[in-house]
């Protein structure tokens, strides 16, 4: 009897092992040959991760994964890869990018990334919505990002940047030596949140050294040390089918509850005090009022509290991390390149503190340094589009509806064919007078392109430049003993970030 039972279990075990082996063989031979059968080159893939194994296992950043796929496709206009079991495409040819992002946008109007309105209302926002809903929201939100709106908002931004400066001055002078080694990432993160919160959403949490619940909530939602949270976030972008399968949420529940409650309080406060502001939140509230007053002639549906919260939370999330990372990378490069820093100091000093929205745009060298920073460290390592209608590329390859298409920004920005010596920080590439080389269209895409390019570009550029000029007007940036060289990129976040923060030495310039 025992012998019989033993052999039954053994049979089960053998059957399971055989099943697993045959599934893996099926995946390897059949699923992972999809692109070969379609006649194009494909990236290496191993079951069950596909081509993104190193990212899923936390070994490399998503930026490096796509840069590697991009490299494997050398000499080809497109390369296929696999997100777990799903075949997707990386575009390599800049002319094709132009078609996908701009010219033939109607075939690629969606991102197709995951959001879950029901269990995670804050995930349903402009970045994650598609189709007519996205179009309507984008149309409605765009007026809040015009040059004239930015001119008004710039004053509020200046208030935040001077608070940033005060905070840094206090820290440096507390050392009694006129210099201090600081972990700068948390500080720039808080600045990033404060700028968006006060200039964009009318929340004045402009604090650095006291409790700042909004900054804490935003950082918690994007915390790279929360491995599962980071993985969920990135998988929602590059492998939505997996997140959909597990019905995941990616805003932590306590963060979501805190923010929904905060928005409710702001709305109540504005309504009961008849208060109006010039911020994004007000634009959404105004739209609701227009719809309600129209007595049904305006057929749009008023936005719910969840929808208003989701859009504004996206600005806080999308805006603070990108801007704060850009400030960090720029300061890091200044510490590594004292000559470039000295030239930037000269330009900042020449402004004599008279900086406004218009003249900061005219600061030529600052602009060159800013562009070179985003060239080396693009915030979004890849742009994502979903093919919504079959599309024939000029080489005769048919992209079928439902295929996710990636534009590998990081790969392009580090391609020596477009940016010689890509690891060299060389602002001269972007000199309007004598560029060290011609930048080919659609090879420099830090804010994306086409109808889904970054809606907050003006806002982001202004807040980064303002943060940088405020810091450099008071301090020289130097490498500290603890500064990691070369800089390692965080492997767990979708947004390109320095790994485990950034330590730099700030030296007061008037000592
Ligand atoms: C240096 C700062 C920033 C960088 C580098 C950056 C970069 C990007 C990139 C690459 C995209 C994707 C574009 C595409 O797919 O073509 C994007 C989209 C977006 N960004 Fe930014 N961003 C920055 C700041 C901001 C700020 C401050 C806000 C809000 C106030 C913002 C809001 C958004 C939104 C809402 C989208 C989605 C647009 C849509 O799908 O219609 N960004 N950003």
Automatic annotation (TrEMBL):
InterPro entries, per the entry: Cyt_P450, Cyt_P450_CS, Cyt_P450_E_grp-I, Cyt_P450_sf, Insect_CytP450_Detox
- PROSITE patterns xrefs: CYTOCHROME_P450 (PS00086)
User: Which Gene Ontology molecular function entries are recorded, alphabetically?
Assistant: heme binding; iron ion binding; monooxygenase activity; oxidoreductase activity, acting on paired donors, with incorporation or reduction of molecular oxygen
So which domain of life are we looking at?
A: Eukaryota
Cofactor needs:
heme
Cited Pfam families:
p450 (PF00067)
**Protein name as annotated:** Cytochrome P450
Name where it's found. Answer: Endoplasmic reticulum membrane; Microsome membrane
For this UniProt record, the keywords arranged alphabetically read as follows: Endoplasmic reticulum, Heme, Iron, Membrane, Metal-binding, Microsome, Monooxygenase, Oxidoreductase, Transmembrane, Transmembrane helix
Per UniProt, heme binds at 454
The record's section on SUPFAM superfamilies has: Cytochrome P450 (SSF48264)
Q: What is the membrane topology listed in the Swiss-Prot or TrEMBL record? A: Peripheral membrane protein
Which protein family is named in the record?
A: Belongs to the cytochrome P450 family.
